[in-house]
Amino acid sequence: MNREHEIIKTSIIGILVNILLVGFKAFIGFLASSVSIIMDALNNLTDALSSLITIIGTKLAGKKPNKKHPYGYGRIEYLTSTLIAIIILFAGGSAIYESILSLINKQVPSYDKWAIIIISVAIIVKIILGLFFRYKAKKVSSDALKASGTDALFDSILSLSTLIALIISLTTDVNIEGYLGILIGCFILKSGFEALKESLSQMIGDRLEKEKAEEIKQLIMATDSHVLGVYDLIVNNYGPNKAIGSAHIEVEDDLTAKEIQYLERKLQTEVYLKFSIIMTIGIYASNNSTEVSNKIKEYVINLLKEYKHVKQMHGFYVDEEKRYVVFDLIHDFDEESPYLVNKEIEKKLTEEFKDFNFSIIADSDFSD
Questions:
Q1: Average of pLDDT values for 143-171?
Q2: pLDDT tens for residues 69-116?
Q3: Picking from 8-17, 44-53, 103-112, 146-155, which range would have the lowest pLDDT averaged per residue?
Q4: Does the structure show a pLDDT above 80 at 31?
Q5: Would you say residue 366 has pLDDT above 60?
Q6: What is the pLDDT of residue 78?
């Protein structure tokens, strides 16, 4: 609730500031017949609309989980970002269209000192607003506010370009308004495409950042001395600060079920307290307790050195009674046929240990 309140309050401030800027810039732009100033005002209007959409998206994303959506509505924030990106693209296209029309119609703007003053003030206001958005975004972990902050700082640069064109027009009678409007439109389009790409990537499902994956693994390893390794880490994101994950840990063969349950609860609590991730912990036994399992495992480790795309082996298990061996292999994404490589390795192992059956599971690399 605190996060939601901060995002909404910050967005309302953004709306009010941008509406004021729209009023001032549109007034000066129409008086001076300046396309670039009018387009700058339009850009501020889209910023205000973006903040409004952020508020609506945040409210919807904060709805409680229910029977139909047990993981909540957090991903609506990603849909919100997509809508904002589309608005930015529309603004960029409009800027280019209007600028081309001004060049065709040979519109000549007329400025006065008030235009320079208002645009100068607008630049300062946008810089302050952008830094404010970025500060709040970091505080509450909001991608929407972060994008708004970046956009505001970017707008200040575009407004500075408008001011430069204005000064050039006043001092040299050279009109670069239309060309500047096209340039501004291109920058807005670029910003929109980048925002759209990022939001769609989040909706599809981004890969967990390598640094964060390492932090989670290190925390699990450091929490208890019984943990010998961490594997198969997966984190599914259901919105900002709403994640569910799973991981396998390797432990000694002789731990009791009671000790394992205590260990799982301990690790789940530590991960949730630090990363706000609801974590399910699976168990791999180290399987190093017999001479036979040690011999096979050592042979497998040496054999895998021949395969440059094999990144990791884990989940190694030997059932000596049923003469069965199973383990997981992670191949990097440069390996075109992991299945065929696994079959090749199985064949070599079967030839070496004729009385054992081998099964290799091709595992996915979600975090390394």
A1: 74
A2: 877 787 787 888 788 788 778 877 877 887 788 778 776 665 566 667
A3: 103-112
A4: no
A5: no
A6: 80
Contact predicate 14/52, CB 8 Å: no
Three-state SS for the chain is CHHHHHHHHHHHHHHHHHHHHHHHHHHHHHHHCCHHHHHHHHHHHHHHHHHHHHHHHHHHHCCCCCCCCCCCCCCHHHHHHHHHHHHHHHHHHHHHHHHHHHHHHCCCCCCCHHHHHHHHHHHHHHHHHHHHHHHHHHHHCCHHHHHHHHHHHHHHHHHHHHHHHHHHHHHHCCCCHHHHHHHHHHHHHHHHHHHHHHHHHHHHCCCCCHHHHHHHHHHHHHHCCCCCEEEEEEEEECCCCCEEEEEEEEECCCCCHHHHHHHHHHHHHHHHHHHCEEEEEEEEECCCCCHHHHHHHHHHHHHHCCCCCEEEEEEEEEECCCCEEEEEEEECCCCCCHHHHHHHHHHHHHHHCCCCEEEEEEECCCCC
Quick one: residue 205, left, alpha or beta (phi over 0 = left, psi -120 to 50 = alpha)?
Answer: left
Stated pTM of the model: 0.63
Could you read off the pLDDT of 306-358 as tens digits, one per residue?
998 898 888 898 988 899 999 999 888 888 888 899 999 999 999 999 999 99
Q: Which residues contact 368 (CB under 8 A, 6 or more apart)?
A: 210, 213, 311, 312, 330
> Which amino acid, residue 272?
Y
Q: What is the CA radius of gyration of the chain?
A: 29
pLDDT for res 349: 94
For residue 250 the two structure tokens come to: 């390797």
Give the separation between CA 341 and CA 19, rounded to whole angstroms: 61
Spatial separation of the C-alpha atoms in residues 356 and 217, rounded to whole Å: 33
Type of residue numbered 276 = S
